[in-house]
Structures are given as structure tokens and as C-alpha cells.
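Protein data:
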Amino acid sequence: MTIGLDTRLREVLGKKTVEALSEGLGLDTVGDLLGHYPFRYAQRGERTDLGALQIGEDVTVTAQVRAAVQKSFVPKGRGRGSRPGGKPRDLLEVIVADEAGRSLTLTFFNQAWRAKELVAGRWGLFAGKVAQFRGRLQLNSPQYQLLAEDAADPSSAIEEFAGTLIPVYPATAEIPTWNIAKAIHTVLDMVPAPPDPLPRSLRERLSLLGYGTALRQIHRPDSHEALGAAKKRLKWQEALVMQAVLVRRKAAAAGETATAYARGGALPEAFDARLPFTLTEGQRQVGEEIAAELAGDHPMHRLLQGDVGSGKTLVALRAMLQVVAHGGQAALLAPTEVLAAQHHRSIVEMLGDLARGGELGAPPEATRVALLTGSATAAQRRTVLDEVKTNTAGIVIGTHALLYDGVDFADLGFVVVDEQHRFGVEQRDALRAKADRPPHTLVMTATPIPRTVAMTVYGDLETSRLTELPAGRTPIATHVVPYTDQRWMTRTWNRVREEVAAGRQAYVVCPRVGGEDAEDNGAGDKRPPLAVVDVIEQLRGGPLSGLRLGLLHGRLDTDEKDRVMRAYAAGDLDVLVATTVIEVGVNVPNATAMVVLDAERFGISQLHQLRGRVGRGAHPGLCLLVSEAPEGSSSRERLDAVASTTDGFALAELDLEQRREGDVLGAAQSGVKSHVKLLSLLKDADIIEAARAEATALIGADPELKGEPGLAHLVDDLASDRGEFLEKG
């Protein structure tokens, strides 16, 4: 039988191993397994730092046995009034340590025979969940694999770990790293050199290893140099395939024909004449770019980045009015019902009587703005569907409900996708498919995107940036508050009361909902994250007693969420205690203060977005990041960075440095299939840029890649599931 990358693992490996690889890691073919790269390499003489282990995490550590002690104990009885009894049990405690002398305890119950294997001086790989007992870190009944060393019996070594560099794989409890290594070793010896998907000319010009050689060296490296060459080759493959997908998609869009919507018109001119402020230079320039593309006969595909409060919605609305003025319809897709309702309210308010199309006394150029969400009643849905189908509603705002069958547009010409990171490409395309001709598309994000991320994830879109804040936006002061210092906490709540006393409003943000929340339990001896349902009661009976408090989180039904937001926006509530459901889009100009509890549990970009909810009116904003993170810790450094600047683009670059790459490009090291496993947006920007140029040249000369069938196969494979690949939120 000929073994290839598409061969099912069940044809070459044992049933138990195949089931563990499939169920635990999603690996079903030879190609899947060989694409499951080590996430690190242990090296003899360069051991794991046991001081960096975190309670509750699953780890595989390389360490040396220092001592093994056998104990005997009688189990305690269970239940009230019970007495100790039963047979004594044996406990084997094995102390292992790293080079710095930091130790870890391994515990084995009724397995005294392991003392014959785990003798002092032996090195091994030990896998399990980190726990703590009486202040000591330990692994209970860990799996392990001993390594052969000069002082030990070499017959116990396994060939997979005979080299200097020991591959450590993303693993599960059912299949530890050494079993994965053994399976990969078996497959490597059975598979002939696979066809190379990279063009020969590219490999020769860049001195890249062949595909088969790179696969062998990534799993069984002969040296650091060989490993580096293998990584470079495989990174190039990831980057080129990804960029080819984006370049081909962009080229295909450029060949489509769209409806052209001329500049100007009674509706946009009437709206601009009513604006009570002057557009920023950035809003004007980006507006000109978009207006010109809407007037063209090829569909616009543009990404609009704007920092918190830069006025993206206004730019999008002016573009929508250009389309509506010439008979087309515009749809705005929002990720949550709260944000969709917020957009609907703000756009209706900005338009005034221009949003009363068909009503008595409305200007003749007016249109209607419809809202469709999943929780709409049957009667509301019928009304909206009729307005959409008859073109009575020129602007339609909604959530995923817009994508459902039965939502039929009369003439959809423009699609605006807000907070694209919450959607996959296939959702964007599902809405575009409701148009008779390819519509123009504007993708908006309030999360500033580092250049390499934009090039890699949004490379099929032209990019615009809004960096200025509109006139009238006030500065936001941000401070880190130590949760354990009662004086600071007293002052924090007093500041909230001072803002309310001055006629203004505040937010209190918590990491989770509470109640039946699955996250209620903390890890190890850590307390669980603070929850809004608990905090609001503590504030009502304590530091914020007497104030009007409201509760908002994602588990409330839509009517309740809308009622709370309307009450807060109207000033009927002083303080809104909420989860991150307020992270984007919520606009209450009278809100000036925000207290973020357990701030260390949020990411940099998330904190920046939350902070953007205050300081949106005439008064300065204040954001207090309450945290238990100690001085000098990485969590505290992250909070200090947020406090030091309001430049979202600078924070986005810092966020990329500190986050796992998998958070940006898919689950790179988590044991889940991903097309991007080695490529680092931070470290490999040069490869990404060069691959973009190579992909542009390849697609330009051969759009279907008929001359490179191996590359075409990988590109088609990635393109087919790129929607899932882009699901990041």
C-alpha cells in the first residue's frame, strides 16, 4: 500500500492511538499528524523552568529525579461521624527538579513498583495537571517517559528521544507527547517524500528545504541549524498559501461588476447640511475614498479602522446615504443585539426627520431605518421584512438575523460589517449573497489592527484608517488601583459618587455574569473572577448605596437589555454594572467614569475598548483599573501600559507582542487543526511581506495556479474553510 498525506491514520496506526489522536486532537490523516508540530523542544542540559508552572495547567516537563520516598497511610473516612478504617494505602512521592533546583512532587498511589524505575539521577518527561498541596506544587499520578542517559540503563530509552533536541507536542491526557512522537516516527518511516507544493524556482531562489526534508527536521531535528531551516521552509509555505488565498480573492472581486452610485444626491446633501460640527480631516479624506469607490462599477472591498471614538459610524452613514439616494439599500451587520440597537438609535437620531420616510410631513428625500434582530416578535419581523422587500427601508440594521432565509432585499447595494473580528468571512459573504449584483462592502473595526495582522487577515481588503478624534471628544485619564488597599478602594467609589453628584454617570465592569456561570470556580487556590450579579448587590448595600444602579449582561433577554440601556442613556440610572457587553458601540455622552474590576483578567485591546465608553461628551473621562496584580508582574505591566497611553494603534502592537499568536490566527498551539502553526506575525513580518509579493506575482501570471497543482490544492483547502479560520471572537 502506498502511504501519502491523505492516507487515513487508521490504515497505518493502532486503533487506540488513532482514536486518541482523532478525538483529542482532531488528527485523522497522515498529513494532519505530520502537520502537528512540536510547540517546544527540550534539550539535554537545558531543562524546564519548574518555577514558571501555573496551578491548574496541563504540562509536560523535563526534569531529573532527585529522590523517591515510600509512605503508608490509612484513608480518612467519609461523611459525618465516620472513622478512619480500611486497608492502609501506599504512597510513592517522587521529587524531581530542574537545573536551578526548583522542585516538583510526583505522587503515585499503590504503585510502589515505580520506585525501581524512578531512581535518583534519571531524567524524564513528566505529564499531568499542576496541583498544590501544603504549599508544594505537584503532579498526581502523572504519565512519564524516562530518557536514556550515560548513568542509566540505555535499554529503556525510546528512539524518538535519542537526539539532542526532544520534541514536545501539544497533547492530551489520553495521548501524551511521547506517544505522539512515537506515532509520528512510525508514519515518517512509512511515507515517501511527498510532492513539494512550493514552486521550484521559489525554493531555489530562497534556498528553502524540500517539503519532505522540512517535515523530518521539524519532528526529528539533527541540530539547531537544521531545525531553523525546517521552520523557515514551513513558515514560508504557511505564508504563501495564506497570501495566495487573499490575493486570489481580491483579484476575483476586482473582476466583478457592481452598481455604481453617483456622488451627491438630495439625501446625503441634506444630511451634511444639518451636521452641527465639522468633519475631521481624516473623516473627510476617508469619506472621499469611499464615495469614489461607490461611484465606480467594481465592488468596493474596504476595511475601515478607527480608534475608539474616531467617528467610524458617521463615515459609514454618509456612505449609506449615497447609496440610498440613488435607489439602493444599505445593510449594517452588527455582532450583538445591544450594538445593533445602539446603531439603530444613533443613526435615527443623527438623521432626524430624514429617517421618517413615508410619514406625513417628512422631507421627500427621507428614507426609513429598519432594525432586525433574532428576538423580534413575529409582528415586528413581518413589518421589517415588508419594508426591506419593498425598499421602504433604505437602511437595514441587524444581527445574524439578517442572514436568515426570508430576508429579501429589493436592491441591496452596500454591506457594512461592524466589528468584523466577531464574524467569519462566510457570514460576510452570506449577506452579500442576498444582492442581485455584487454589493460594495465596508468592514469596520474599532480594534486597531497591527500592520502585519491586517496584511495577513484582511489582505483581500483595501485599508483606511481614522486616527484623529472629532472635536469635542475629551481626554480620558486612566489609573491602576490596587484592590487590596482599602484606602484606594474607598477613594475609587467616592470618585464614582462625586461624578454622579455632579450630574454625570458611571460604569462598573466585571469579567463574568455569575449565578450558574460555568466559570464560577477559580483555578487552584485562586478566587473566582468577580461577577456582576454579586457586585451589584455589594455596591447597593455598601459604597454606592442610595444611587440608582442598573444591571446589564448577555444573559438578559433582549427586551430587558434594551430597557436597561434606554434607561441609562436617558439618565434614569446613575451607574451601570455590566460585563463586556458594553465593550463596543455603546454611546452615552454623559458617562464620565468607569471602574473595571479584576482588570488583569482582560486583554489590552479589550480594556482600551471598554475605556472608550467614557469621555464621549463635554466632560473628561476617568477609567480606574482595579487589580490584584502585584507590582512587576506581567499582568501589572499590561495594565500600566494601558494607563500610559490612549493611542489604540500603539496598544495594538503591544497586545500582539504579549498575546499568543493563536489568539490572532487560530489555535496554533492548542491541539486544534490550524493552517497557521509556526508563522509569527511579530517575528515573521518579513516573510509575510515577501510572500505577499510572491503570491501577487504567481496569481497575476496564473490566476488558477494550474501550473502549480500542489500549491493550488493547499490554497483551495484554506479558501474552503477560511471563514472558520477568521473566527476570532
Observations:
- The CA atoms of residues 333 and 417 lie 5 Å apart.
- The longest strand covers residues 58-73.
